[in-house]
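User: My advisor, Dr. K., asked me to get a structural model of this assembly before our group meeting. I'm new to this, so sorry if the format is off. These are the inputs:
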Amino acid sequence: MTYQIHSSERIHHSANRAEFITCLTEILPAQSVLTEIEELKPYECDGLPAYTQVPWVVVLPETTEQIQSIMKLCHQQGVPVVARGAGTGLSGGALPLSNGVLLSLVRLNRILKLDIANRTACLQPGVRNVTISQAVEQYGLFYAPDPSSQIACTIGGNVAENSGGVHCLKYGLTVHNLLKITLVTADGALLSLGGEGLDGPGYDLLALLTGSEGMLGIAVEITVKLTPIPEAVNLLLAVFGDIEQAGEAVAGIIAAGIIPAGLEMMDNATIRAAENFVKVGYPVDAAAILLCELDGARVTVNAETHRVEQLLVEYGASEIRLAVDSGEQQKMWAGRKAAFPAIGQISPDYYCMDGTIPRKQLGAVLKHISELSVQSGLAVANVFHAGDGNLHPLILYDANVPGELEKAEQLGFDILVYCVKAGGTITGEHGVGVEKINAMCVQFSAAELEQFHRVKAAFDPAGILNPGKAIPTLNRCAEFGAMHVHADVRHSHLDRF
Amino acid sequence: MTDLSSQFQQQIREAVENENPVNLVGGNSKSFYGREARGDSMHVAGNKGIIDYEPTELVVTVRNGTALHELESVLAEQGQMLGFEPPCYQNSATVGGAIAAGLSGSRRPFSGAVRDYVLGCKLINGYADILSFGGTAMKNVAGYDLSRLMVGSMGSLGLILETSLRVVPMHEMESTWCQEVKSDQVIGVMSAMLQKPLPISGLYYDGARLFYRLYGTADAIAQSANTLGGEEYASHDQLWSDLNHQKSDFFQDKTPLWRISVAPATEQLPLSGQCVLDWGGALRWLKTDEPAEQVFQTVADVGGHATLFREGKRDEIIFQPLPPDLMQIQQRLKQAFDPMSVFNLGRMYPEF
Ligand SMILES: Cc1cc2nc3c(=O)[nH]c(=O)nc-3n(C[C@H](O)[C@H](O)[C@H](O)COP(=O)(O)OP(=O)(O)OC[C@H]3O[C@@H](n4cnc5c(N)ncnc54)[C@H](O)[C@@H]3O)c2cc1C
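Assistant: The format is fine. Below is the predicted structure of the whole assembly, which you can bring to the meeting.
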């Protein structure tokens, strides 16, 4: 479905396409500027195929200088720009604009420097997540954030979305593993954020940039922290006949003072789909399984494993499997990591949600999701980063059946509203993009949204970076009806957005 | 438990309307830190109390005026702690002040900085609006991360009313080991240690002795200590507490004290004076009479940044001078939060 950008979010310009393309070819070799419909089509969506938009033009720069020149040109002509990494984003963050440049960063894919003494790696933005750990394994190090999409997604995209992975319970999200970013700003200047040490001078712009969905600048060099590979890893798979019990077991493990490296949960629908897809011997009759990974010093891991096994039994696990060698562990993880494509096999389309909730609400929220699912007539399969309360309900639908996409969107929206009500948030790691932009009107007040817009304007006064994403205009919210926007006369002499 | 947010909002509203800057004061424990702010003191420590704490959620939500040591003892009763080991130079130190100052203790390289533990903030900006960002969830990417931006902003972006912090379980056991290392070898020794997956939670060099704190089960600690060598150090808690709260002899001095943040394996800097290394070398405390420009330049040359932490001239430059582009964006951000310039003017940089 072609996405309609909200009229209040569209950036208008009067640049002539042919002339603009000529200017681009002065910056880039002709083959790095894509202009024909068949070349543009592959970029019409990211990992959220429900929304599409063929871009005005696509550019494939190879150097920072080229990116700076492109940004200067766009800034001068008022042409909006959407950055794109691998396009695996699940919220439409890299959805192109009909009148804007799509800036692909995949050709900037070099590891610029490995500094083993300081345990850091300096990367171009198009470096794929998994290649970092591959490159430093020989030094006994790894890059901790490991999104399930890690074989494809780029470090630039990870920064822009503050991506997490199954190991972020212990090792943190992207934001916890970054040291420095070199940024090309909306007007083509270079800024260096963070530093070589563990903090930088002035305001923490590094944290601000992380998760900013390509709206504050283009990350062109990223220095990440590397972590020593733990001495020992144990992986437990616990089988539950009742999903709420599995939820309680999660809280129980945390309450016992144990922080597993990963703590993941899958419900019956996901277990079946995953087993059907990867055949790793998951118990297909289970209501839920928990995957609990423990790592660290061998003696500590063994002691913790013993403790977790006891807890799992106390909380009602009917079976516990332990994988100690890495081959077995990979097999056990494979089903979890392939959960999304596995669902893709059993349903023509699926819509992945990303709400987070306080852990203690897991049971209540699951129950509510299944009620909503029955009401809407669409099935929902659930996988969670259970340890940090991050849910991924996957709504199964068929886009070819008229009205089903709208139904799926409505169900997704209702789930998110419930997450906010339960004390959580609309997105844990996939970002707002275009997908959850209306839900932002539910989560934030007008004054909060205005503060976001002012921060954006501090970086990008003309608003040319990724317009229409992540932060809704007050007009949109007013129309959407979720917020009562009233004229605020108190500081009418100050700019309002 | 006192909620003074509406009173504060009224005060800020008046300050904005009268264009009358305020100097936010929490526990006054870090009044020596940063530049002297212009404006009338506004005391904010009265807004205090733990709003919500659920140990199984690993989150605590507190008002800004809550004393750090009170919060820490409440957490300790549940076997939990603040993972960033905040320095509190005096007992009066508040949580709001710790967030605004953004200083982290010796655990920083191993378990993270203040900003890594901030999940959400409620604040009053320079429009006198009360705003909430983030929340209590471990993961949250809805909107820009404005709660982390408050960390280290020295009160210049607004008044922090509440914050939600992730907390962590205390380690089962910790003990500290010590060995003599020559100062020209210590960087290499620490770097080698940090490349191994060892259960270290503190790594500090006092100029002659290298101290490392180990955690885990008794067996795990014994094994690691065996690998690393050295003697067990008896006054374990005292050592780290004196370092963090700057109570050890090194800090009792009238020479200007610099806080220097660099890549940990950076060789000894060509600056005279006495230096101790925390954070495995990434944080260096230097007592020197070298001119400030000299220190700033030397540290900038290795990609780090320096702060004149104590005993400096507080009407001069205290924080590392920023390149013009970076200064400009910081000024614009200040504008975005505080257009009438009411909050802590000049505390960080003379420009804002
Ligand atoms: C099967 C599957 C599994 C997934 N699993 C996870 C998971 O476990 N955890 C998780 O967090 N996410 C997951 N994702 C989502 C997605 O992979 C991440 O959001 C990822 O970080 C996106 O990276 P990308 O390179 O594909 O970015 P894109 O999708 O190309 O872009 C994402 C956003 O980043 C911006 N952007 C890209 N590069 C830059 C740059 N250099 N500078 C500034 N802005 C930039 C874009 O404008 C866009 O807004 C999954 C996706 C799929 C399809």
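One thing worth pointing out at the meeting: The longest strand of chain B covers residues 159-166.

User: Perfect, thanks a lot.
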